[in-house]
Amino acid sequence: MPPQALPSNLSRRAPTTLGNALLGLTQIILWGGSFFLVAVIVGPVVATTGWPQGAVIGALSLAILISGLLSPWIGRRIRHLGGRPVLVTGTLVMAFGLVLMALAGSLPVFLLAWAVMGLGMAGALYDPLFAAIGQAYGASARTAMTQIAIASGFAITLCWPASTFLVAHVGWRGACLAYAALAVFIVAPIFAFALPNGRPVHDGRAALRPGTVATVLKAERLAGEGLLAITFATAAILMTAMSVEMLLLLEAQGITAASAVALSALIGPSQVGARILELSFGQRAHPIHLLLVSAGCVALGLLLLVAIPSLAWLAILLYGAGNGMRTVVRGTLPLALYGQGEYAAVIGRLARPPLLGQAATPIVCGYATEFLGIGVLSGILLAVAALNFGLSLLVAHRSRR
């Protein structure tokens, strides 16, 4: 089934570098007020409320779970309404969740706040943003996605110190209110300014009759989409696990705690460096090749970390580079395979398995470390990396067909 064309009013205005940089800023703020906020506030929240630490950390898993369940619906909304209204609404919902979190006087209200956050995250983070850009700009979207990824690449490097500063001076509740204000007064206006306006018009094709060649091709494409979703899911699980267990993995290899922190700091620059290289030299390469390079770098980095601890610095650089390319590939590869007209709906469906995997990963890693040990966990992660590379090879093989 060929991709449906979009009207000219959505694709005529090319994305600008300034607009892409501003969109990258939105992701720094929104990720800082959601994913990266938990690590900073968990201690103060537990200390001031007495709520169980596991429940406080698990609130993020609840938000990710809800976000994953909603992602296909969000993709359809973007396809029918355009990206601007969906992302502005998602941002305002996230802001409301942060305000509710700041006012939470009991654990159920705190969990409810994170559930609301999950609703907003489904409509405002990378996946819906890339869906909106890909649908609006088509072939021009690849450069835009890479520029956004570069601009937001230092999110964790910037947000952890900023959140720590806010918690120290205004408390964890004040930090939540600060991020809510940034979402309302900076992020929402940027989405309204930098995203194109307009509603897609679809051409209403007739339904396919069973037994036709088109039906067979559609079934083949859906099978390929499932394989791609599993590939993205294993990569997301691996990234989440490494975020949770990186310091423990390094220390298990005989690296001191201070050195482990210093080595982990290499991830941000290596991610951004890989994205800059892709923008400068990789624009002519098909995204499927970048998928293979990304998966290969991550797998090789983990292998070096486990087998040759003295090369931990190289292992971190390879892992960071592969992970940096992964963000861009998640946006550009579905666009190359499925086309502009189908893109928003496809990326919404593809977002669900990775998000569900991310929601479960911290809990699974915690229990695996406790009952099996960090050595066994490192072997499991290496196996997941090998599986991801193998799946990437399968995706490349199918894409040629």
UniProtKB/TrEMBL annotation:
The chain crosses the membrane at residues 21-42, 54-74, 86-105, 111-136, 148-171, 177-195, 227-249, 255-277, 289-316, 371-396. Residues 12-400 form the Major facilitator superfamily (MFS) profile domain. Keywords: Membrane, Transmembrane, Transmembrane helix. The keyword Magnesium does not apply. This is MFS family permease.
